[in-house]
């Protein structure tokens, strides 16, 4: 069973802009731009019954209009032991509500509660021990000013991650369009 998570897809033009920040950091395993996303609820490996109940709950979720997602900077997780470089996402009320809804649906489906605080972001690279705190700080400084990037999310998706060391490839298993949204991406 693959690992599952819900999230928002990143449009190709925004992914291309984010890809300009790739490189220049020893110990970084860069995520492919086509795999960039904002995770709403990580589920991990779950059984088929929970997956089916999750899918049904997401399909029946209340109608919502498309929401604006804004990326506003680069940062890293892990402090003295950096583990990821990411683009931060502004935690708007609409985005927080959507994430909370996905949490409720996941719990109703039988998934264990998420213990981590929701920090909306787009992971750009996973870091190993070779990526020292000093090297990460230097890379963030060298990246310069991060231009605010915004896009309209028109659907949520249920993603799967095939067996790998993290970082993709990710597949859209199901999509849940928001009200009056015509998504112009690939239909899975």
Protein model, in words:
- The chain has 188 residues and is α+β, with helices and mostly antiparallel strands.
- It has one domain: Cyclic phosphodiesterase (Cyclic Phosphodiesterase, Chain: A, Alpha-Beta Complex), CATH 3.90.1140.10.
- The protein is built from 4 helices and 9 strands; from the N terminus they run βαββαββαβαβββ.
- The strands form 2 sheets. Strands 2-6-5-4-7 form a 5-stranded antiparallel beta sheet, covered by helices on one side. A 4-stranded antiparallel beta sheet has the order 3-1-8-9, with helices on one face.
- The radius of gyration is 16 Å and the shape is globular.
- The C terminus is likely disordered.
The secondary structure category is: alpha+beta
Q: How are helices and strands ordered from N to C?
A: EHEEHEEHEHEEE
CATH architecture grouping? Alpha-Beta Complex
The fourth-level CATH homologous superfamily is: Cyclic phosphodiesterase
- Find the CATH topology: Cyclic Phosphodiesterase, Chain: A
Largest sheet: 5 strands, antiparallel
| Stretches with pLDDT under 50, minimum 5 residues | 181-188
Overall form: globular
Helix content: 25-40%
The count of DSSP E runs of length 2 or more, i.e. the number of strands, is 9
Q: Please indicate the percent range of residues in DSSP E strands (runs of 2 or more).
A: 25-35%
> What is the CATH class designation?
Alpha Beta
The total of helices stands at: 4
The chain-level mean pLDDT equals 92
The main sheet orders its strands as: 2-6-5-4-7
Number of domains: 1
Using only C-alpha atoms, the radius of gyration works out to: 16 Å
Q: How far from one another are the termini?
A: 19 Å
């Amino acid at each position: 069973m693959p690992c599952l998570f819900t999230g928002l897809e990143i449009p190709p033009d925004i992914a291309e802009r984010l890809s300009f920040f790739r490189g220049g950091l020893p110990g970084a395993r860069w995520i492919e731009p086509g795999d960039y996303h904002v995770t709403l609820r990580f589920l991990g490996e779950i059984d088929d019954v929970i997956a089916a109940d999750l899918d049904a709950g997401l399909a029946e979720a209340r109608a919502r209009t498309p929401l604006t997602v804004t990326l506003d900077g680069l940062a890293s997780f892990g402090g003295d032991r950096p583990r990821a470089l990411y683009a931060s996402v502004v935690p708007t009320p609409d985005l927080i509500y959507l994430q909370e809804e996905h949490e409720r649906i996941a719990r109703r489906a039988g998934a264990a509660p998420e213990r981590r605080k929701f920090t909306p972001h787009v992971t750009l690279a996973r870091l190993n021990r070779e990526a020292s705190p000093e090297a990460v700080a230097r890379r963030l400084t060298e990246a310069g000013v991060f231009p605010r990037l915004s896009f309209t999310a028109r659907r949520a998706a249920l993603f799967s991650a095939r067996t790998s060391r993290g970082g993709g490839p990710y597949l859209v298993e199901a999509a849940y369009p928001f009200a009056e949204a015509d998504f112009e991406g690939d239909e899975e």
